Amino acid sequence: MKRVSISLLAPAALCLLLSFNAQADSYPEKMGVKLATGVANVVTGVVEIPKNMMITSGTKGTVYGVTAGFFVGIVHTLGRTLSGAVDIVTFIVPTTSIVKPTYIWDDFNRETTYTTWRMR
């Protein structure tokens, strides 16, 4: 009997927590936005390479921008893609995106930065 009650405790607690979240205003909308952000960042992560080549070429010169910007773009591609994958996996918890700007097309001439998670 004790084993049965312990095995039912975890699902009951999970249902209780999910019911509180479902009652929050626009909770499904926040989950959808996080899922969409994750998918967009996974799909468009590779665009970080030409973006960083353009930004670096504009500030440091064409030759340096094409070479160094390419490698910086690869690092940011990995960062944006992995951040998007994390957003997809954890879309049930509505947090803000780690990547700034959130989408690659927002403020295209700004270098990508990374922040901490915050609740939406």
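Next protein, fold it too.
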Amino acid sequence: MSNGRKQTLILLTAALIIVAAMFFVSLFSTPRFNFIPTYEISESPNPTRANETNSQSESQNKTSTEPYVININTATKEELMLLKSIGEAKAQAIIDYREINGRFMDISELSEVDGITDKIIAENLGRIIV
């Protein structure tokens, strides 16, 4: 075997080892981000171009059946009101509690807010994050 072929074989073997090592590191390493998808709330998933301007103004007044996730530490009053059984007063109570006590560390802390029961928390478990 010539010197050139030996060097090529060594380089290919080294490259293969590096690629395999990178694969196993990425396979067994923990993810850096805990990504939770959020969804934009709109009237319909596929608005038509002709009615786009009309449907945009109408969609702001209506809620959708599309799934959504709301961060209770950063949500506005309007966003909190999208949750089940949360009206204007309860949304404001959540914001007031947050301003006085700081960030929520756990979803169960919502039960400390006046008017928020365990039933309301259970209804919204898939929709809220901290």
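About the second fold: The mean pLDDT is 77.
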